[in-house]
Design goal:
With 464 residues, the chain is of the alpha/beta class. It is built from 16 helices and 21 strands. The strands form six sheets. It has a six-stranded parallel sheet with strand order 2-1-3-4-5-6, sandwiched between helices. Strands 17-18-19-21-20 form a five-stranded mixed beta barrel. Strands 7-10-13 form a three-stranded parallel sheet, sandwiched between helices. β5, α5 and β6 form a beta-alpha-beta unit. α9 runs parallel beside α10 and α13 runs parallel beside α14. The chain starts with a strand and ends with a strand. The protein binds S-adenosylmethionine and iron/sulfur cluster.
Length: 464
């Protein structure tokens, strides 16, 4: 009987990518992917340290896993439990101290050693921990992508961060900035083309700080990397995330103008609209810098859709500072955004500030900001009603969406789910599975019938 592995993932796309790679790695040593903890020989929890109560969530997950691990033991089998990701990196040995369910602790830069660590747990009956930072070695060892491959695939091209925003744990959990060489990334693109991937999503904590080398050992930035990937005729769409305003250089803005395959959508976190808050955050850019970048981008690519991250209630944020954030949002006009209440992360400079903002103030500001951002998102989506747009179809729409009372396409037909150039979810219906199969992994023109806050409904325009 092949062994089974179950992986639970928290957090960002980079964690999703890491989980897929851990799955590939364990598949390559004989573990089959399982959808449930029960009966699995190995369980990995890939954690995220960004959000509040990250470690509490981990320990409640571990509590839920315990009875299944005990049941396996009663049946004479062993369930190996591994904690991976940024909480593993930040908390280390403390996790063993708080939960004896855990056998392995492995960091985001050392998970390539998982098969070895599993071997040691089984042979030596000892707990294992590896929190080394060796990103180059990690990418060399990992097998080529298999997990989670569809029309669109992620490739991590850059890891870590040297920017040390005063609220953020990433520089501590993911280490210093590191970029992979272009050739290795292009090899990964070729492997994905063989699996019929059409869209490449380049990932990095600071992806636009990418500074790899090309085949001639010349320095190459993200614009150069995108240009190289765009040369593959099979690749039809390219995206990248997450960017920092400080690294939004002219070559990347020009790439948006010149490379048609580069999608007209950018996630460019600003965090706050007040210069004094930005300074206290150590963002090293002002609101004026942000306006300037957006102006250049819109000049280069007028239909650019914009997204951002916001933190409200950063220590010392006054009502006037918060008004500056609202003003920035109104001036820019975003397509979709993420917004969070500031949450102190142990070990980061702002966690110790004596100017913490009261919880109810944070909640009130978050509600005001989210209302404005939702209105902008609806306005952005509404603009596409009765328009025709190219959609890359990936899969059938999730069942809940199909049967939802909010879904204006109400039928038993097959519903297809895809993405617009502006990263909106697009749902259309077709008569049967045979027709549906013709659309997967392809770009088709869709006429948008109805815009919802987080999705668009349409009809295939050439089927009319
Ligand atoms: N590197 C990206 C950048 O510079 O914008 C962001 C990376 S971070 C993983 C993702 C988002 O989480 C941040 O943009 C920020 O809005 C949010 N975040 C990080 N630390 C936070 C904290 N302590 N409290 C609230 N939100 C936080
Ligand atoms: Fe965190 Fe700032 Fe680095 Fe982004 S740039 S990962 S927010 S420290």
């Amino acid at each position: 009987m092949p062994k089974k592995i179950y992986i639970k993932t928290y957090g960002c796309q980079m964690n999703v990518y890491d989980s897929d790679r851990m799955q590939d790695l364990m598949n390559s040593v004989g573990y089959e992917t399982s959808e449930e903890v029960e009966g699995s020989d190995m369980v990995i929890i890939n954690t995220c340290h960004i959000r509040e109560k990250a470690s509490e969530k981990l320990f409640s997950d571990l509590g839920r896993i315990r009875p299944f691990k005990e049941k396996m033991k009663e049946a004479g089998k062993q369930m190996i439990v591994a904690v991976a990701g940024c909480v593993a990196q930040a908390e280390g040995q403390e996790i063993f101290r708080r939960s004896n369910v855990v056998d392995i602790i492995v960091g985001p830069e050392s998970y390539q050693t998982l098969p070895d660590l599993v071997g040691k747990v089984l042979r030596e009956k000892t707990k294992q921990i590896n929190l080394d930072f060796v990103p180059d070695n990690k990418f060399d060892i990992l097998p080529s992508s298999n997990a989670g491959v569809g029309a669109s695939a992620f490739i991590t091209v850059q890891e870590g961060c040297d920017k040390f925003c005063t609220f953020c744990v990433v520089p501590y959990t993911r280490g210093a900035e590191y970029s992979r060489d272009i050739n290795k990334i292009l090899d990964e693109v070729k492997a994905l083309i063989d699996k019929d991937v059409k869209e490449i999503y380049l990932l990095g904590q600071n992806v636009n700080a990418y500074h790899g080398f090309d085949e001639n050992k010349n320095p190459a930035n993200l614009a150069k990397l995108i240009e190289k990937i765009a040369e593959f005729p099979q690749i039809q769409r390219i995206r990248y995330t997450t960017s920092h305003p400080r690294d939004m250089d002219d070559s990347l803005i020009e790439a948006h103008r010149d490379i048609e395959k580069l999608m007209p959508f950018l996630h460019l976190p600003v965090q706050a609209g007040s210069n004094s808050v930005l300074k206290a955050m150590n963002r090293k850019h002002t609101r004026q810098d942000y306006f300037k970048i957006i102006e250049k981008l819109r000049k280069a690519k007028p239909d650019m859709g914009l997204s951002s991250d916001f933190i409200v209630g950063f220590p010392g944020e006054s009502d006037a500072d918060f008004e500056d954030t609202l003003d920035l949002v109104k001036q820019i006009g975003f397509a979709q955004c993420y917004s969070f209440k500031y949450s102190p992360r142990q070990g980061t400079p702002s966690a110790d500030s004596i100017h913490q903002v009261a919880e109810e103030v944070k909640e009130r500001r978050l509600a005001v900001l989210q209302k404005l951002l939702t209105e902008q998102q609806i306005d952005f989506n509404k603009k596409f009603e009765n328009q025709i747009m190219p959609v890359l179809f990936e899969k059938e729409a999730p069942k809940s969406r199909k049967n939802s009372s909010k879904n204006p396409i109400d039928s038993d037909k097959i519903q297809l789910w895809g993405k617009s150039p502006w990263l909106q979810s697009v749902v259309v219906e077709v008569d049967n599975q045979e027709i549906a199969n013709n659309f997967f992994n392809k770009i088709s023109n869709v006429e948008v019938v109805k815009a919802r806050p987080s999705s668009l409904f349409g009809t295939i325009s050439n089927l009319k």
